[in-house]
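Researcher: I've been going back and forth with a colleague about how Sigma-54-dependent Fis family transcriptional regulator might be arranged in three dimensions. Neither of us has a model we trust, so I'd like an independent prediction. The organism is Rhodopseudomonas palustris, in case that matters for your notes. Sequence below.
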Amino acid sequence: MSIASSRDAVVTARRRFFGEGRPVDGMLAAPILRSWQRCAGQGLDASRSPLVEPPTAHELRELQERHDRLGRLARPELNALQGDACLTGSVVILTDAAGVVLDMIGSGEFAGRAAQVALRPGVSWSEADTGTNAIGTALVERQPIAVHGAEHFFERHRILACAAAPLIDPRGRVAGALDMTGPAAIRHVHALGLMRLAAEQIEHRFFSEGFERCTVLRLHTDRALLGTPREGVLAFADGVLVGANRHGLDLMNLDWPALDLARLETLLPSVRPSDQIQMLRGPRGTRLWGRLVEPPQCRSRAASAAVVAAPSPASPVGEVEPILDTEMLAQLSRTVRLVEAGIPVLLLGETGSGKDVFARRVHAESARRNKPFVPVNCAALPEGLIESELFGYEAGAFTGARRQGAPGLLRQADGGVLFLDEIGDMPLSLQSRLLRVLQDKQISPLGGGRPVPVDFALICATHQPLGSLLAAGAFRQDLYFRIAQYVVERPPVRHHPDRLALVRKLWRQLGGEEAGVQLSVEVERVLAAYNWPGNYRQLVGTLRALLVLGEPGHPVEVSALPAEIRAVSACDSQGLVPPVTSLAEHTRSALQAALDASGGNVSRAARRLGIDRSTYYRRLLKDKDRIR
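Model: Here is an independent structure prediction for Sigma-54-dependent Fis family transcriptional regulator. You can compare it with whatever you and your colleague have in mind.
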C-alpha cells in the first residue's frame, strides 16, 4: 500500500469512526483500532486538546531522581540513538511505566515543535491522558508499535510520527518505554526496528543489577549469540525461577506466570554450574547452548579463574563485541590479571575500535565482576559540571545542586572498575585532582565534607596521541605515568586479518541469520573491502541498519548500503582511487556543516549535533590546532 493510499484510508476511517460512529474494521491496524476504542470509551474527545499540566522544575527533578536506575540503564541506548535522531530530525524519548516522559534527546529544532503539543519531560503520554500514541499504546499492548500522523487519537497530534517499544523488566512488569518521534511529513521507516533492538539491549541490561545472589542461566540456539542481547536469560534463587527476559521464556516454552513456580532441575535436569558453554536440550527437543553461572558465594577461586577465557556475559548496550584473535585473547587475560592486582591500564586506539567493549569484558572476567562498572566519557561531560559529576558534592554546594548532594561517579565505582574514556580530554585543572585521588585512595566532595575512602580498579582510554599532549603541556606527565602502567592497543578494523570473516561473525551476533536475513555476496565483498574509518562502531551501526532494512528470504543488495560506502565500491569497481577520509576529517566536516546550517550560531550547531556547547568549542579548537 502506498503512503498516499494509506493516509487516505486513515482519513476515511477517522471520518467514519469519529464523525459517523460507523465500524472501521480492516481499515486500520488492529492495535490502533483497539486504542481508538479504549480512548473513546474513556470519554476522550478527539477534536479537543488533551488536558496536560507540565510539572515544575522541582517536580521534574524529583521524578527523574525516582527513576534514576531506569535512566542510568537506558542512558547508553539514548546516547547511541542520538545520532540517528539528529540525522532524521527526530527525538528519542524515555518514559516511566505510566508513560511520563523522563528524558528526551535528539533534534533541538524538532524538540521545540514537539513542546507545542506538550511532548516534553514531565508530561504523561499514557493513552488515558494523551490518547492513541506510540508510547501509551505500546505500554497498554505490551508490544512495539508505530503511530503515524492521523492514526493519533487527538487531531493536534497529527504532526507526529512515533514508534515505541515497551521495556519489560525481569519480573514481567512494564518498566517504561523507549520512543522515537519525528515530523509526520517524513516516513520514519526504520524507527520501529531501532526501538525494538534498543529495548532488547536495555532489557538485557536489567540483569546487571539486583541478581548478584542468583544463579543465572544464559542460553540461545546459536552459540555465537551467547553474551549478546539476543540471548535468553533466566535467574534462579534456590533453584526457583525468579527473573527472566522474553527470549529466555520463549526458548523454555514458558510465560510470565512461571515465575516463582518453575524449577531449574525440572526445566533442564542435565545442566550443571560451569563457566563453560554446554549443549542442552530445550523442552521442545531444541538444541540449545547455555552457560549456568552460580553467585560468587557458591563459586571456588578455581572456578573464578576459569572464566578468564570465557566470553563476557554481556556486551555494553548498543554495542556488539569485537572479535578477538589469539593475541588479543592473551592480551585480555593479562589485562584481567593486572586489574585484579590493582595496576592501572591504558587502552589506546582509534575512535570506535572497541576500547569500551574491551574494558567491559575485562570487568566481566575479573574478580570485580559483581561490583559496578562505571564508564565516564571525559569528552562528553559539560565542562562546568565535570568536577561535580566526577567527585560528587555536598548538599548546597552550588546553585542547582540536589538538596541531598550527590556521591559522584568515582564513589559509585567503589569496589568495581572505573573506566575513564577519552582521558585526553580531561581539563588540566581536574587532572591534578584525579592524580590526588589515585595517590590517596580517597575523595573530597565539592562543598567540603570529610574525605571518603574509595577502592576501584582503573582503566583509561583515549584515541589521542598522549605523547603530543605531554609535549604541549596539555596533559600532566605525572598523571600519565600513574594511569599508563600497562598499555593495550586496540587495532583498527582495517588492520583485521580477515574482514570478511569479521563481517559474517558480527552479522551472526546481531541476529541476522536467526532473523532469516542474508547479505548478498556483493554486499559482503563491499563491506569487507571498505576501510571503516569509524571502526567497529561504524561497521556495527551499518550492519544494524541493514538488518532493519532486510527482509527474510531476500538477500540484502548493494543498493541498501549507505551512500559513502557505495561510492567507494563504485570507485573500486572502476579502478579509481577514492579520496582517503580520516575520522578527524569526518568530525571536522560535521562540525562545519552544523555551523553552516545554523547560520554561524554555535549553540544551535551544538544542539543539532546533540552535544554540549563547550564540547563543540573544544572539538573545533582541537581540529584548528591540528590544521596548524
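Researcher: What would you highlight for our discussion?
Model: I'd start with this: The radius of gyration is 25 Å. After that, consider the following. Residues 473 and 620 are 19 Å apart (CA to CA).
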